[in-house]
Give the backbone structure.
Amino acid sequence: MLTDRIRQFLDSRRFDGPVVVVDREVVRENYEAFARALPDTRIYYAVKANPAPEILELLAGLGSNFDTASVTEIRQVLAAGASPDRISYGNTIKKERDIATAFELGVDLFAVDAVEEVEKVARAAPGARVFCRVLTDGEGAEWPLSRKFGCTADMAITVLEHAHRLGLQARGVSFHVGSQQNDLGAWDKALELSAYVFQTLAERGIRLSMVNMGGGFPARYLKEIPGVMDYAGAIFGALRKHFGNRLPETIIEPGRGMVGNAGVIRSEVVLISKKAADDDKRWVYLDIGKFGGLAETMDEAIRYPIRTRHDGGATGDCVIAGPTCDSADVLYEKAPYALPISLEIGDEVLIESTGAYTTTYSAVQFNGFAPLASYVI
């Protein structure tokens, strides 16, 4: 969202290229909203969404835990002031030496989804705690996840039994219902699978204690979304339904829902043109595109809100594209975007709800365009 703080910051400076500005106060409000909605659930911020030191330090000070995907992210979180017991190594694909390094740094909670990964953890981090990720279909998510992570519930039982035999602590299960999940019922099916794993292993003498319910909590883009309390009510109802009065320890891993609406990208119109004299669509080229941080426009999955100084006037359908010499660098074409007719070359364009997955996707200087500059205020 364009807060007064972000507007004042943009007005007080000149920029040569696109920038993203994130308002820490919005991140604080989001964290507090999650904490109020699910008071008995521990929050593990998904660092991959935005690893800016200022955000990590803020969340560490608020008491957040952290979901990390690499040793680099673990070191970033430790540098921000969080202790190792507040860190989960949530990537199911890890080099054995990285597991060993994480364990040496004090991290002892690891995600797995295969017996082969369990064996690596057993060798590199003996006695550590593990949880197994279970596959879900991601139906209802605007950015569904692939089959790259997780395994079936039956295989999860095998994986956790193997972990137990190797001396690891079989802690529980995890799942992810898909990023930008708008279906309040998505957690119900995943928790049903989780309860099945719990019950089956309990019958075999292995008592699990934790369910990591992952992320999926959305940011507001062009569509209205349910509120945090709506998600909390649906999740708590599903927990009661499938676990009865013996509720497990629970974890959530918000990333987009924590920082997405806290950021705004300031971009500039580089060119406006048509492909033919009778073309009914304009092409609007910005100084940012897929390779500059807007990778989530792939397949037009995420449609960001766009503001200009001409808003309120007549609009026309546009194809929006980035500046690079790559034909894939087109943001919106299948479903054209309505922008003001009076839009001009050189105009400022503000792209809202861009606090998540923009700086992390723009790390490469493709075509010589600098990575997205980031400011946290």
About this structure: The two ends are 14 Å apart (CA to CA). The chain has a mean pLDDT of 93.
